[in-house]
Backbone:
C-alpha cells in the first residue's frame, strides 16, 4: 500500500518514512503542497499524510485542489495541538481523519490501520451494492440466448447516452422491460419513466394525452392538464406501439422531438421539455415507411439506436429458465408453495411455439399454478392447446378443391381470430396481442367476419 507524506519538516518526513517502511508500506515524500500534488498525480497513493500548516500551499488548500482534480486517496491531516480547528475544517472538505503532533509510532500505525480497514470495508460495501444492482438490473429479464445477451448488452451501453432508441419485436417479447432497463441504467433514473400505448388510445385523445391541454381547449376540458411529455420531463417517455400512431400526430411528435418543446392544446406558447424518447413496435417500420403509413423523417429520428428482440420460439433455451422463474415469482405473489415443474411438463413447454411469447408463457404458468392439485406442475396442469396442440389444416369452411389463396387466407384468419378469442375468453386486447394485430384492426375484422 502506497503512502505519500507531505510536510515541510525534513526530520518528520524521515521519521515517518522509517516507521511506515518498517511496517511494509511503500512511502513517497514531498516537502510542500505543490510538490505533493505532483507526487499524488504521479504515484496515485492509497493514503496521504499531509501537514495542515505549510508555507505556500497549506494542507487545506492542498486538499481542495487534490479533491478537485479527482483524487480519491484517504487523506489524514497532521496537525499541531493549536490547529485542531483547521483539521476539523479539513475533514469537512473530505479528509478521513487527523492525527495530532507529536505522535508516537503506535499512534501513527493505529491511525493508518483504521484508515485501511475503513477503506476495505467501503470497497466491499460498494462491491456488494454493485452485485445487488446487477441482480436487480436483470431481475425480470432472463437472458440465456446469444440474441438476448446481445440485446441486453446494447441496452446497457446506450443507457448512458440520451440517444433515442427503437425496440422492435413481437408482442410479449419484453420490449417495455428493456425500455425500463435503459431508463434505470441512465442518469435519468431518478426521474419519471412514463409509458403510453399509442395503439390503445383513440386518435382524438392521443394528442391531448401526449401534449396536454388548457381549460376550454375542447368539449370536456374543464381544467388545465399537463401532457405525458411534461410528466416525463428530465426522464424517459416510452412510446409503445408507435407504429399505430396516426399520420397527423406523427408530424406533431416529430416537431416536439426536434425542437425539444411542446404546446398544449388550446395554448399559443411552447414549453421546453427535456425528454429521452424510447419507442417500441411489433411492426416493420421500414415497410410501413415504404407503404406511406409512417413518416420516414420520424423513423430516422426515433431509430438512432435500434434494438431487436427475437421471439421466444427462436430462443428456446430460455423457456425452461423463464418457466422456473415465473414459478418462483408467483409462488411468492400468490402465497403458494409449488416445488417445481415435472420434466415432461418442461419438455411440453419447450416444444410449444409461444405465439404470445414471454407474456403468454407467464400467463400459462400462473394459470397452471392456480389450478394445480399436486406439489409440482405436470402436463395435466397445462392448457389443452399447449399439452395437446391441434394442427391447423384445410379449412372446413371451403370445398377441398377450392384453390383461391385469398379465400383460404380469409377462412384461416377467421379461425385464428376465433381461437384467439376462445383462448383469451373474449378479451379482445389480449387476443389482439396473440394475433399480432392492433386492437383497432381486430375490432374491424371481428365485425367483417360477423364474430360479434
Residues:
Amino acid at each position: 500500500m502506497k503512502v505519500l507524506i507531505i510536510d515541510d519538516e525534513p526530520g518528520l518526513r524521515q521519521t515517518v518514512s522509517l516507521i511506515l517502511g518498517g511496517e511494509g508500506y511503500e512511502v513517497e515524500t514531498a516537502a510542500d503542497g505543490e510538490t505533493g500534488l505532483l507526487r499524488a498525480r504521479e504515484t496515485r497513493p492509497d493514503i496521504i499524510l499531509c501537514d495542515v500548516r505549510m508555507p505556500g500551499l497549506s494542507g487545506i488548500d492542498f486538499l481542495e485542489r487534490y479533491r478537485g482534480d479527482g483524487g480519491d486517496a484517504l487523506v489524514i491531516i497532521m496537525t499541531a495541538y493549536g490547529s485542531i480547528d483547521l483539521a476539523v475544517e479539513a475533514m469537512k472538505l473530505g479528509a478521513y481523519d487527523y492525527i495530532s503532533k507529536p505522535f508516537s509510532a503506535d499512534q501513527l500505525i493505529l491511525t493508518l490501520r483504521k484508515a485501511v480497514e475503513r477503506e476495505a470495508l467501503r470497497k466491499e460495501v460498494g462491491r456488494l451494492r454493485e452485485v445487488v444492482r446487477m441482480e436487480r438490473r436483470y431481475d425480470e429479464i432472463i437472458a440465456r440466448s446469444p440474441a438476448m445477451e446481445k440485446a441486453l448488452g446494447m441496452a446497457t451501453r446506450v443507457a448512458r447516452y440520451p440517444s433515442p432508441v427503437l425496440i422492435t419485436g413481437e408482442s410479449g417479447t419484453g420490449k417495455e422491460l428493456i425500455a425500463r432497463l435503459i431508463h434505470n441504467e441512465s442518469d435519468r433514473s431518478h426521474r419519471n419513466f412514463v409509458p403510453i400505448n399509442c395503439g390503445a388510445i383513440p386518435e382524438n385523445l392521443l394528442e391531448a394525452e401526449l401534449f396536454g391541454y388548457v381549460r376550454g381547449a375542447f368539449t370536456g376540458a374543464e381544467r388545465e392538464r399537463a401532457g405525458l411529455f411534461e410528466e416525463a420531463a428530465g426522464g424517459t417517455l416510452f412510446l409503445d406501439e408507435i407504429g399505430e400512431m396516426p399520420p397527423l400526430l406523427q408530424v406533431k411528435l416529430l416537431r416536439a422531438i426536434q425542437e425539444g418543446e411542446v404546446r398544449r392544446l388550446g395554448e399559443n406558447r411552447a414549453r421546453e421539455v427535456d425528454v429521452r424518447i424510447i419507442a417500441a413496435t411489433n411492426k416493420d417500420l421500414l415497410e410501413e415507411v415504404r407503404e406511406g403509413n409512417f413518416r420516414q423523417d420520424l423513423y430516422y429520428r426515433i431509430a438512432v439506436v435500434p434494438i431487436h428482440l427475437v421471439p421466444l420460439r427462436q430462443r428456446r433455451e430460455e423457456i425452461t429458465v423463464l418457466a422456473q422463474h415465473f414459478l418462483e415469482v408467483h409462488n411468492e405473489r400468490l402465497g403458494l408453495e409449488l416445488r417445481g415443474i415435472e420434466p415432461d411438463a418442461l419438455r411440453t413447454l419447450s416444444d410449444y411455439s409461444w405465439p404470445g411469447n414471454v407474456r403468454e408463457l407467464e400467463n400459462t404458468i400462473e394459470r397452471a399454478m392456480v389450478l394445480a392439485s399436486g406439489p409440482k406442475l405436470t402436463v395435466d396442469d397445462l392448457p389443452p392447446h399447449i399439452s395437446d396442440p391441434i394442427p391447423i389444416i384445410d379449412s372446413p369452411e371451403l370445398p377441398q378443391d377450392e384453390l383461391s389463396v385469398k379465400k383460404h387466407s380469409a377462412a384461416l384468419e377467421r379461425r385464428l381470430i376465433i381461437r384467439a378469442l376462445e383462448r383469451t375468453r373474449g378479451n379482445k386486447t389480449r387476443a389482439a396481442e396473440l394475433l399480432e394485430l392492433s386492437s383497432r384492426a381486430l375490432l374491424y375484422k371481428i365485425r367483417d367476419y360477423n364474430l360479434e
User: Anything to note?
Assistant: The chain has a mean pLDDT of 87. Residues 2-128 form a domain with the Rossmann fold fold (CATH 3.40.50.2300). The longest strand covers residues 74-79.
